[in-house]
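Please decode residue identities from the backbone states below.
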């Protein structure tokens, strides 16, 4: 049965609060120390009322450990304190992972209303996460179900092309070529939809990484395309950031391939830079390509939105995927561009958590 964990080393205060909670209909367990709180937290309470000042392990540290443990990370933590009343105390508690911070004395009805509001919000988040998991599972299932018959279409159209080679009219050859092209494009679209669906679920395994090293790996991946199109990519000294590595790889790959795909009359020149912006880093990816009319600047980040016809391949998910990766990491993404003047894509990413290093 769901319960609230009431953590306070001051016995009279703990007793009074437990009485208030039980009168409001909650099941309650108590802890007088941080160590005891961490042990009971393994039982997965609905919410922890956590005193900031405890005799063994401080409330801030207890909260940090609860939120970092995968088993208890989803537990709501509400800090309470009668002595740590300053704004910096609230900031430290909330930055440490607490969901809310109240100072005493606090009216019982306000405490109960706050607890219920936090539980409602948490329940809504859980429902959304469940819905997202269902959507991800559905996307995985449907793409798998579509890819097998599509693979058959591609294989048998290739076999048919070989079998009747030299016996078809020009028009019939064109029909067969259209079937093979459509199968290939459909496969690309299915892969893009699946990739976007996975990105939609969140940031994945985020960690401190060198964006310079990620970009170098992307350039190796795109080496043949860059050489064939005489593309010049200028970059240096990119920072360490806290993001999903695979996601950042897709961001760089999409932005670079788009700059090449939508190039202007001159050979593509792509310039990638970054600069500190508070605790984050602002990246810019500039190209000398066709450019984008300002009225389309928001539209291009929407799924399946494309400004060019079928003569240029793509499912219209590349930039939507890029923005999703960036926002999942806590950043923002936008574009500045005019038709015929190239484009500059900007995005922000949080700096590395475990180091202040800038670049490799």
């Amino acid at each position: 049965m769901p319960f609230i964990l009431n953590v306070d080393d001051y016995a009279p205060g703990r007793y009074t609060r437990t009485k208030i909670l039980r009168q409001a209909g909650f099941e309650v367990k108590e802890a007088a120390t941080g160590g005891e709180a961490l042990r009971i937290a393994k039982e997965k309470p609905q919410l922890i009322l956590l005193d900031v000042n405890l005799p063994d392990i401080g409330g801030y540290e207890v909260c940090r450990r609860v939120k970092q443990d995968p088993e208890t990370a989803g537990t709501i933590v509400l800090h309470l304190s009668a002595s740590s009343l300053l704004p910096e105390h609230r900031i430290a508690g909330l930055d440490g992972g607490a969901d809310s911070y109240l100072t005493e004395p606090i009216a019982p009805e306000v405490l109960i209303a706050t607890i219920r509001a936090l539980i409602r919000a948490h329940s809504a988040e859980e429902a959304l996460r469940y819905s997202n998991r269902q959507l991800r599972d559905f996307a995985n299932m449907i793409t798998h179900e579509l890819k097998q018959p599509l693979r058959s279409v591609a294989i048998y159209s290739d076999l048919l092309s070989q079998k009747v080679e030299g016996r078809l009219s020009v028009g019939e050859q064109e029909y067969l070529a259209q079937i093979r092209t459509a199968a290939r494009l459909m496969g690309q679209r299915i892969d893009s939809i699946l990739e976007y669906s996975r990105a939609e679920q969140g940031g994945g395994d985020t960690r401190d990484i060198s964006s310079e090293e990620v970009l170098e790996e992307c350039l190796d991946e795109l080496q043949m395309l860059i050489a064939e199109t005489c593309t010049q990519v200028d970059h240096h000294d990119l920072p360490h950031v806290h993001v999903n590595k695979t996601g950042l790889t897709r961001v760089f790959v999409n932005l670079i391939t788009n700059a090449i795909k939508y190039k202007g009359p001159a050979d593509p020149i792509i310039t990638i830079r970054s600069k500190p912006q508070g605790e984050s880093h602002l990246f810019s990816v500039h190209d000398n390509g066709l450019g984008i009319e300002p009225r389309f600047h928001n539209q291009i980040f929407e799924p399946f939105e494309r400004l060019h016809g079928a003569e240029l391949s793509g499912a219209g998910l590349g930039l939507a995927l890029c923005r999703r990766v960036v926002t999942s990491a806590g950043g923002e993404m936008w574009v500045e561009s005019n038709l015929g003047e190239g484009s500059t894509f900007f995005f922000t990413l949080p700096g590395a958590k475990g180091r202040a290093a800038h670049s490799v």
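Observation: The chain has ten helices and twelve strands.
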